[in-house]
Amino acid sequence: MVSKLLLEEIKTRWEMELQKYPAHIRGRFFAAAVVNTLNDKIVSIGLNRVLMNSNPTNHAEIVALNNVFKLSSDVRLPEYFVMVSSHEPCMMCASAIMWSGIKNVEYVFSYEETKDLFSVEEDIIMLRNSCGIDHVKNSNLYNAQQIDDQSFKNDLIEMYKKFYSEEDNNHLKEQYNLV
Question: How far is Cα 100 from Cα 75, in angstroms, rounded to an integer?
Answer without folding.
Answer: 7
